[in-house]
Write a structure and sequence with these properties.
The structure holds two protein chains of two kinds. By secondary structure, chain A is of the alpha+beta class. In chain A, 29% of the residues lie in helices and 34% in strands. Chain A has one domain: Hotdog Thioesterase (Thiol Ester Dehydrase, Chain A, Roll). In chain A, the strands form two sheets. Chain A has a six-stranded antiparallel β-sheet. A two-stranded antiparallel ribbon of chain A has the order 3-4. In chain A, strand 7 and strand 8 form a beta hairpin. Chain A is globular, with a radius of gyration of 15 Å. The relative contact order of chain A is 0.18. Chain B is α+β, with helices and mostly antiparallel strands. Chain B has one domain: Thiol Ester Dehydrase, Chain A. Chain B is 23% helix and 38% strand. Chain B has three helices and eight strands; from the N terminus they run H-H-E-E-E-E-H-E-E-E-E. In chain B, strand 7 and strand 8 form a beta hairpin. Classes of the chains: A alpha+beta, B alpha+beta. At the A-B interface, helix 3, strand 3, helix 4 and strand 5 of A face helix 2, strand 3, helix 3 and strand 5 of B. Strand 5 of chain A pairs antiparallel with strand 5 of chain B, so a sheet runs across the interface.
């Protein structure tokens, strides 16, 4: 991403054009990601169930890579959303713990920035379905900021 | 390549999400498997540069690592990812295929431990590393079809 993209991203953010943001990321569009803000102004990411995101048709369950990609995408958007920088963050590492299989239902995610240093940011990400107290997966990630 | 890997690779790449990404089987021997994904505009995460989204790498590593756990098995069983860590060493070059070579370095009675590298032109110059653990016989639903 160049600063042109970040300029556009920040304009979409200021307009609260959630659909426009997802639409600008081909992979997020392919998964079918949606985003919104909850009552307290926190970003909420939603992945409506889609047959093409299934990884185990017998259970059936969402593909682990879909859950991971959805969370990584959520973290990246969340970080760009809360910063003013024109420098796009880069993922350094991404670590996922799978706690439950992803049922054929909507999957939700929210992120929190645990630390923002000069060069590195640390984020925690959580995904759940029916009950936010029973996460489907939790993840942590480091991003390079500069 | 074992008969089980041949059967399982066909099943894995046909899974809806894997087919959506276009994952394909390349090779397998001993305790390792190589899968690949070809570059496509739909898989891009970075619209300005055309670099693949990290989620594509995650799916590739998860699928390839799970498949590698079957190299030491004679019969299919359920296999659930417990955890997965990816280190992004450098961005993938746009327009180029990404390969993943995963090996199951320890197949325990209950847990399979795997490590993977993703690369484009040169396996010795990887774009990402992945480490994963899998729970064996994680449900009655056997991967590859059927019930235990």
């Amino acid at each position: 991403m160049t600063s042109d993209y970040m300029t556009r991203f920040l304009a979409l953010r200021d307009a609260k054009d959630y659909h426009g943001i997802i639409d600008s990321i081909p992979y997020a569009r392919l998964l079918g990601v949606e985003m919104s803000e909850d009552g307290e102004g926190n970003l909420l990411f939603t992945l409506p169930f889609a047959e093409r995101n299934v990884g185990n048709p017998i259970l059936p369950a969402l593909h682990g890579g879909v859950i991971g990609g959805f969370l990584e995408n959520a973290a990246l958007i969340h970080l760009m959303w809360i910063r003013e920088s024109l420098e796009p963050p880069k993922v350094i590492d991404f670590s996922l713990d799978y706690l439950k299989s992803g049922r054929p239902q909507p999957l939700f995610a929210r992120c929190s920035l645990t630390k923002q240093g000069k060069r590195v940011a640390h984020m925690l990400i959580e995904a759940w379905q029916e009950d936010a107290r029973q996460p489907v997966a939790v993840a942590r990630a480091h991003f390079l900021l500069a | 390549m074992t008969p089980l890997i041949d059967r399982m690779q066909q099943w894995f790449v046909s899974l809806p999400h894997c087919a959506t990404l276009g994952l394909r089987f390349v090779d397998s021997a001993e305790n390792w498997v190589i899968l690949a994904v070809d570059w496509r505009e739909e898989l891009v995460g970075n619209p300005a540069t055309g670099v693949l989204h990290g989620g594509v790498i995650t799916s590739l590593v998860d699928t390839c690592s799970a498949l590698s756990a079957f190299t030491g098995l004679e019969e299919a069983e359920a296999m659930a990812t417990l955890d997965l860590r990816i280190d992004y060493l450098k961005p993938a070059q746009p327009q180029q295929t990404v390969f993943c070579r995963a090996e199951c370095y320890k197949l325990g009675r209950q847990i399979a431990f795997t490590r993977a590298v993703c690369y484009q032109q040169d396996m010795n110059n990887p774009i990402a590393h992945g480490l994963a653990t899998f729970m064996r016989a994680s449900s009655r639903a056997v991967l590859g079809g059927g019930q235990a």
